[in-house]
Amino acid sequence: MTPRQACLACLQRTPPSVMEAALWVSSEHDPEFLPAQGLEIIDDLTRQVSASLPMLPANELAQPLLRRLNTLGFQQDDWSQPKPQSALLHRILQRRRGQPLGLAIIALELARRLGIPLEGVNFPGHFLLRTPGADHLLDPCGGRRLYPKDCRELLNRQFGPDMPLKAEHMVRASELAMLQRLSRNLRHLHQMNDDFLAALMDADRVVELGQATTSDHLARASLYQSLECPQAERFDLEHALLLSDDPIQRLRLTDRLSQLPPHSAVH
Fold first, then answer.
1. Residue boundaries of the structural domains of the chain
2. Residue 79 CA to chain centroid, in angstroms?
3. Could you give the strand order of the β-sheet that contains 145-146, starting from the edge strand earlier in sequence?
4. First and final CA of the chain: distance in angstroms?
5. Is the backbone peptide bond immediately before 15 cis, with ω within 30 degrees of 0?
6. 121 backbone dihedrals φ, ψ, rounded to 5°
7. CATH of domain 175-258
8. How does strand 137-138 pair with strand 145-146?
9. Class of domain 3-170
């Protein structure tokens, strides 16, 4: 079984395991890494965190869990030029630094093992966590409580004052949605760092996970353009055209398709 197949199999379990799936993503990019190595680190973390949690009901332990992880050094990366190491789970476990989503995946796995109710929230620009039923969200980078006013401020810092806070920003993230977001993050980071083949690996995974968007196909088309693969680029541009509802975008896609070489003949 390839790392990709193992990754997808983790999401098909009952319940799905986003932690193991993410570790297989790491193995796909770093063949010398084995997911079992990452799970050993998680085993050790579970013991450390469990021994230091206060005697409180389980539904009050999410914030202490996040604060304990922060005390152990798990913090958000502050690189001015983000790198793939910020999103790859095995690097986050080794460095104890990473993006909010990676830190959240670790916290969710620990919470699952310790019987602490916790769920992911696919908030734009900064992945968040929540105890089901609570009136606030939690920042995986330290455990700060976020109420609606704080969420609006976070959204404004990320996207500017014109983006309103919507109910859809606060819904639970499925395991598949988390892995797809992780794959998009990695695609972007690898492309930013000019590793187009690694970015293509992530772009393929995004599409393979299903429900790929126009933007997903355009991102992969851009990678194929950089790698001078016009027929593969055409495939994604055609799919983007089928999915797009924007008339101006459709005109631009049609024009871009017309500039590509025609389909190669098969003999």
1. 3-170, 175-258
2. 18
3. 119-121, 128-130, 137-138, 145-146
4. 34
5. yes
6. -130, 120
7. 1.25.40.10
8. antiparallel
9. alpha beta
Q: What angle do CA 185, 182, 105 make, to 5 degrees?
A: 135
Q: HEC states along the chain?
A: CCHHHHHHHHHCCCCCCHHHHHHHHHHHHCCCCCHHHHHHHHHHHHHHHHHHCCCCCHHHCHHHHHHHHHHCCCEECCCCCCCHHHCCHHHHHHHCEECHHHHHHHHHHHHHHHCCCCEEECCCCCCEEECCCCCCEECCCCCCEECHHHHHHHHHHHHCCCCCCCHHHHCECCHHHHHHHHHHHHHHHHHHCCCHHHHHHHHHHHHHCCCCCHHHHHHHHHHHHHCCCHHHHHHHHHHHHHHCCCHHHHHHHHHHHHCCCCCCCCC
Per-residue pLDDT tens digits for 79-138: 778 899 999 999 999 999 999 999 999 999 999 999 999 999 999 999 999 999 999 999
Give the Å distances, CA to CA, from 248 to 106, 241, 244, 255: 42, 11, 10, 11
User: How many other CB atoms sit within 10 Å of the CB of residue 38?
Assistant: 24
Q: Tens digit of pLDDT for each residue in 43-89?
A: 999 999 999 999 999 999 999 999 999 999 999 998 778 899 999 99
